[in-house]
Batch of 2 targets.
Target 1
Amino acid sequence: MITGHMNSRLAILLRTILPAHRFYARKFAGLDLDDWARLPFTTKDDLLANQAEHPPYGELLTEPLENYTRLHQTSGTTGSPLRWLDTPASWEWMLGCWRTMYGMVGVTASDRLMLAFSFGPFLGFWTAFEAASRLGCLCLASGGLSTGARLKMLLDNRATVLLCTPTYALHLAECAREQGVAIRGVLRAIIVAGEPGGSIPATRARIEDAWQARVFDHTGMTEIGPLAIECSARPGGLHVLEDDYFAEVVDPVKGEPVSPGDIGELVLTNLGRLGSPLIRYRTGDFVRVDPSPCPCGSPWMRLEGGILGRTDDMIAVRGNNVYPSALENVIRRFPEIGEYRVTIDQTVSLTAVRVEFEASIDGLEERLAIAIRDALLFRAEVSRVPTGSLPRFEMKARRVVVKR
Ligand SMILES: [Zn+2]
């Protein structure tokens, strides 16, 4: 449902970027721009193909190239990286998104923020950092440091808020335990991003227990912008910044809106990144909107359970669709289990699911296999592997491997 207010904002957006934006001018040529639901979707493949055809930036810019001041790019884990440029005005809009999110989390000028990221070409940490420094926070960048050095930096500078991936929040806590350093109660809040763990109950419980700090989930995408944050009133979900985005949830096959409360693919239009906008962008993320009002009072769409998984890594196991986040939620309930990897083998006639894990004790295989069967209704082959043998991730952990 598009409200009258949103309708006019979308109309203004289209009038502002067309016809200068050649990609959308061609995509929407001859279409009735007022008939939003009939406008074609944009996919990442469309954007990559356009950049390949018109290197290096494609026809994806509204303004002359010299007006752009920032370049970021996607990870390219599922193909080539997408190059994304921003004008100063688009950058300001993204800092505004962060200002809103920091407000919802309760970050103020007296906070000291530690950003435990690499500061590579992804967008997220740069916008998070600059928005926090504008807010008046002391901001600590910790790219290129070892985990031990980051832990020391966090403690020495008395950081109050940590931003990192859920994996890394656990990894830092593990490092503190090994070094015998006390971290409980040091932080006030941990904003996690880059992986779905922040909204997975068992994962967030582990982080909150290790640090005795409240976890806030966040998500954003380099090509879209900072997008959604958990509110303080209701853990385990994400509010989409609906003042800055028009969000739709569609059936990934039919492309039609799903019923409220049903799982579908998140489709986004960013309303303020006018230099490099995306319209009806298929994020590839599965979400479920919680239609009940949120106790925080925000009218914004709330995604229950955060990002449930990617459309490209949903696992079909013997007639059931299984989300990697559901498997993670079962595995993370075992405090003795550290890193893990799930392999889905579809090369055999009955899809096989193999779970390898590192653990501090013996004899968990059978208990984990039973827990998976009880929760997800399939039997997995479960095995313990030596500690340190599985890959570690700084960003965008990919713990599910599909063999097709
Ligand atoms: Zn809320």
Target 2
Amino acid sequence: MFTISVARLKNAPAEQRRYLLSGGVEPFPGPGGELVRILAPVELDLSVTNAGDFLWAVGEVSATVGLSCSRCIGEYTARTTGRFEEKYRLHGGADEEGNEIPYAADEIDFTEHVIESLVLSLPMKPLCKENCLGLCQYCGQDLNTGDCSCRVDKGDPRLSVLKDLFTGKEGGGGGGGTEK
Ligand SMILES: [Zn+2]
Ligand SMILES: [Zn+2]
């Protein structure tokens, strides 16, 4: 799917070709370790240049991914774009800086680089929205959909003390002075 033939480009110095590719990608682990699902075909806008000693490939990757929010664990959909640059040598064994680069075969598969660039484009801690309230740490209620009662009780210690006092008085049967 992300494989192109460069057999002719390899023999065409200074030439540049552009390839618009798309395809499916299996779910893969994101930067936080959680599984990332691809919800629509991944698009790759690739340009490959014959730079004389090597082929120079630049890819722009866009995908619609399904992530789970790190606060409320809810599933949400996000659009993400990644980028990669790779060199494939035509002659010699290394580039100008002496870095080893792979030999350019007649066909090059970019799938690995597509996935890698997507992983790099994703957040370490995905959030369904900037101000996601997350889950109540006591009862697990999704606080985006409404407050739970334990949050009010335990969230503000002062309220809880007042409530205890009040119920204490009532329990004593005296009737509070504040009652009207
Ligand atoms: Zn969330
Ligand atoms: Zn709660």
